[in-house]
Amino acid sequence: MKGSQKVIDSLNALLANELAAIDQYFIHSRMYDDWGLNKLYERLNHEMEEETQHSDWLIKRILFLEGVPCMTKRRDLLIGSDLRSMISNDLTLELEVVSCVREAIAVCELEGDYQTRETLEKLLFDTEEDHVYWLEQQLGLMEKIGMQNYYQSQMGN
């Protein structure tokens, strides 16, 4: 099915963010693992897997619309050097993804691609309601209980 080039371009822009998220979460999760922060490692490893699923869906949708997935463009990674900067950087990335998804939904609406829009709405819900909320919660916990207590809470068993 030949899709709108505007929709394909929007999906490729979103793909660039999702691919960057995979890489950023991969690096951050391995840093958490190295530091013994097992709970953060497990959560971010899970988020990396979800971003991989999002990327897979975007690639399949672009191909379905007879477009070419762009696997070479990615936004710059925001690699943190400490716990607070890592979580803040991940939040910055997720908020950019949210903005990009909203823009893609608007393009789908204008172009009459309601099936793509519907799936993007599910992706938006997953991103906003799950990961953005969790990241904001972690930053709030750091403020409420202090960094040392937060570190300790993330070590696991």
TrEMBL record:
Positions of Fe cation 1 binding: 18, 51, 54, 128
Residues noted as binding Fe cation 3 in the record, renumbered to the chain: 46, 50
Alphabetically ordered keywords of this record: Heme, Ion transport, Iron, Iron storage, Iron transport, Metal-binding, Oxidoreductase, Transport
InterPro entries named in the record: Bacterioferritin, Ferritin-like, Ferritin-like_diiron, Ferritin-like_SF, Ferritin_DPS_dom
Positions annotated to bind Fe cation 2: 51, 94, 128, 131
E.C. code: 1.16.3.1
Enzymatic class: oxidoreductase
Segments forming domain Ferritin-like diiron: 1-146
Family annotation (Gene3D superfamilies): 1.20.1260.10
Example of a GO MF term: heme binding
Catalysed reactions listed for this entry: Fe(2+)(in) = Fe(2+)(out); 4 Fe(2+) + O2 + 4 H(+) = 4 Fe(3+) + 2 H2O
Highest taxon above the source species: Bacteria
Any Gene Ontology CC annotation: cytosol
Pfam families xrefs: Ferritin
Gene Ontology annotations of biological process type: intracellular iron ion homeostasis; iron ion transport
Function: Iron-storage protein, whose ferroxidase center binds Fe(2+), oxidizes it using dioxygen to Fe(3+), and participates in the subsequent Fe(3+) oxide mineral core formation within the central cavity of the BFR protein shell.
Family: Belongs to the bacterioferritin family.
Annotated protein name in UniProt: Bacterioferritin
Species per Swiss-Prot/TrEMBL record: Marinomonas primoryensis
